[in-house]
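Re-running ATP-binding cassette domain-containing protein to confirm reproducibility after the cluster update. Everything else is unchanged from the original entry.
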Amino acid sequence: MSASMSTPAPAAPPALVEAERLRREFRMPKGQDPVVAANDVSFRIAAGEVLGLVGESGSGKSTIARMLVGLERADAGSLRIAGADRFAPARGQAARLARARQAQMVFQDPYGSLDRRLSVQQALVAAMRLHGVADREGARRRAGELLDRVRLTEQQGSLRPHQLSGGQRQRVAIARALAVSPTLLVLDEAVSALDVSVQAQILELVDEIRREAGIAVLFVSHDLAVVDEIADRVLVLYRGDVVEEGPAAAVFRAPEHPYTRLLVSSVPGPGWDPHEVIARRREFDAAR
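Result of re-run:
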């Protein structure tokens, strides 16, 4: 090969999640305009990649997250996970369970999503048995492996949710999501209720899981510092519209859209200047 010939750039990894022009609007009382929570939102997430979804309350973040796991319908658009059409009718229980296994969600409040009557191990076994991914003995063995994976002890596995700390409950929620070997893991404000040290532990755990398991991750948060820590790429939402997207480092350190600049300037930290926030708000209002 001649010295003048360049080596081709490596091909981008194939996308596990492909969302095209997702739209969702909510009807309001008579006389009021509908609220558009997602307006032609498109994105890709590759294996082992974390896509951050940021924006103020009401920007549409949670609506998009819920569409991905089937808790919210889309008015228009398409969604494929590992090539499977998520919006095609699921015929029969087996198809519905297979669809549920594909995309698992970890909520902000794990206590509300865990069965308070079951111990941690029982909850993990029940999830695997429901989805038919293991027999009873295999599910018990896998539950022990999952506890170890999320750094919980066998003793903690015998406890019920109310006997665990908030961080431990979030680890249980992650373990339960992983129990069915999902393609996509959606975390909706999953660390916002935790203190900083526990946040760091959960973020480290999620980072390990996505690298080792090769799953796609959608990380939804209003906390830009947390998203900057974990995400490879970022989508910035404003009232259902994607106003900016790109590598996390570029979006947060050299934002191009006035709204993104407003969000970044609003994060308190060393040298934080409230006057800059006011100026950014005026800039954004003028751009609108």
